[in-house]
Give the backbone structure.
Amino acid sequence: MFYERPEPRSGIHRMVFVLFRQLGRETVFAPDMRHNFNCKNFARQYHLDTVAATHFTCQREAGSGGRRFRSESS
């Protein structure tokens, strides 16, 4: 599976990497959607055993758009 770099549009996002051990010789297909992806269901569907996992958080770089706050003057 190809690595897709994170490109959050707003807010803070958690990126998770999970390493599975394949228990059979069945072909494993990439999920159709990453939104609300469920690792437990994916592992069950393809008979995978979870070996390790890690995560990091990221957010959009400053000055690249996103939410704007208006300052109030007295």
